[in-house]
Amino acid sequence: MSPQPDSWKSKRGGIHTTLIGERKGRKIASLVASHEAVKKIIPGIIQSKGPSGGSFRAKVLRPDSRGNLRLLFTQGTSYQEIILVTTASDLAEGEAVSDELNALIDKELNE
After folding, report:
1. 55-91, pLDDT tens digit by residue?
2. What are phi and psi of 54, to 5 degrees?
3. How many CB atoms sit inside 10 A of residue 26's CB?
4. Residues 25, 57 contacting (CB under 8 angstroms)
5. How close are the terminal C-alpha atoms of the chain, in Å?
6. What is the pLDDT of residues 11-46, one digit of tens each?
């Protein structure tokens, strides 16, 4: 599945529009947005995590009880949590979507 160029912009919500990771961050956001189970992407504020971290990383975290997910971007000393509203109706469906998204992200970052 290749990311659609405007999929991240069309599914973006909230007031924050900046993503850390520059091109990699936008590419991962587009990839995640192009997944059929993702309805909305809501970027959070960029925060400092303390000591220097290193290169860009992205990971989908455990779903909530409604199946919605959090995508964590980290780069250097900054991190950003992005809420993913999904079509999943419960924890089990959310975990399946999480596994699919993490596999797509790992493939993209390891190319």
Report:
1. 899 999 999 999 999 999 999 889 999 999 999 999 9
2. 125, -140
3. 14
4. no
5. 15
6. 778 777 788 888 899 999 999 999 999 999 999 999
48, two tokens: 């400092």
- 2, amino acid identity: S
Residue 57, token pair as written in the block: 């990383």
SS (H, E, C) the chain: CCCCCCHHHHHECCCCCCCCCHHHHHHHHHHHHCCCCEEEEEEEEEEECCCCCCCCEEEEECCCCCCCEEEEEEECCEEEEEEEEECCCCHHHHHHHHHHHHHHHHHHHCC
Q: 10 is written with which tokens?
A: 């069309």
